[in-house]
Amino acid sequence: MTQDGERAALEGDREDRIRGLPRNVTDLILELLPAQDAARTSILSRNWRYIWATLPNLVLDYDFCRKLIEESESMFKLAVDEILLLHMGNIVKFILDTRGAHFSSCADIDKWVLYVTRNGVKKLTLRISNLNTYTLPPSIFKCSTLTDLELTNCVFKPPSSFLGFPNLISLDLQRTTFVPTTSFCVIKAPLLEDLSLNMCHGSQYLNIISPGLKSLYVRDSYYHLVLNCFMNCKDLRVFKLDFYKVADEKSTLEKLLISLPALEVLHLDSYFLELLSADVVPNGLPFTLNFLRHLSLCVAFDHLGQTSYALQLIKNSPNLRKLVIWVDATDDDAKAVLKYLDSPSCLERPLNKLEHVSINIYESAKAELCFVKQLLSRTPSLLRMRISQKTDIDVDIALELMRFPRASPRAELSYFPYQD
């Protein structure tokens, strides 16, 4: 066989192998490629010629957008126009990430969003640059097919005719600004399960009606989120509040915790412990977290109220399996806290279900070590306790930790420098 004949045979064999791949495999391959590389696969085989144009998931990620925008804004917009113009069939997922880019106009983004919402989009992600102010177009609020919505640096201003998202399951809002048409931004989402609010503005205007909510995470809210709208979320299993101040009083937050019978994971920042304790040592709590499995707390151990409330939460979680403590800077001369931690009433009952403990201490202050000692002596099922320290580790502290008595003969104790 001649050299040209051998080459033709090899190319034919390669094309046969490519042509024979199942459609779900080719879809997966193309979805893992950048958009421009996926388009180039049309030359591999006649069967592949139009596959990239029928992909249900269009991912225009940060790298794709950045490279084109660095060439020119017009080139980027033309490329996205062509991708959507040549696309055939429904679009299930659409991701657009233009962070770091400044546009002279956001009209093209409105046009792209209109296109995907008219083509049955279910999972929509818009990560817009903070160099632009992007107000969501009306087409998003009319899109009833949405199941997953992620927004970054957007203005959420629903029209007065907005009826909600009937099929929405996940809502992730980052640096989003809420602007009410009337007195509140009301979002009716009867199927919503996961809600995340990260560094959002105007959350005091937000009213989410989602009785089936299972996970709620709020971080760095610049204004006051009203927690009352979550009182009816009886299925809430994960509840995290971080670096955030609320307008509500202690009673509102306690009522919310009382109203969450299915709660399994709870994270509270030190601000909330301060709010809940009102700087008073509680004799007990008005609620028991019977289903709580994972508790994460940020505690300042030189604040008696925070320390005592943290211990009350631990004691009132009879089925707790995992405990994570983040320690704020602690005054080494916290006499009131040391006296409380040494008292018999501090942890009068064993924590029978607790198996894993992680404590991120600041600088091994006396109160922090006393707290560790109490836990080791009251956890008969403990398997592992990991202690990390933000400052350099101290050999004397390590020896002291090793000498603490342990209720569990199987407990492993590790002490090491903190790592991000």
TrEMBL record:
Protein name as annotated: F-box/FBD/LRR-repeat protein At1g13570-like
InterPro entries xref list: F-box-like_dom_sf, F-box_dom, FBL13/AtMIF1-like, LRR_dom_sf, LRR_FXL15/At3g58940/PEG3-like
Residue ranges of domain F-box/LRR-repeat protein 15/At3g58940/PEG3-like LRR in the record: 109-325
SUPFAM superfamilies per UniProt: F-box domain (SSF81383), RNI-like (SSF52047)
Cross-referenced Gene3D superfamilies: Ribonuclease Inhibitor (3.80.10.10)
F-box domain residues: 20-57
Pfam families cross-referenced by the UniProt entry: F-box, LRR_At5g56370
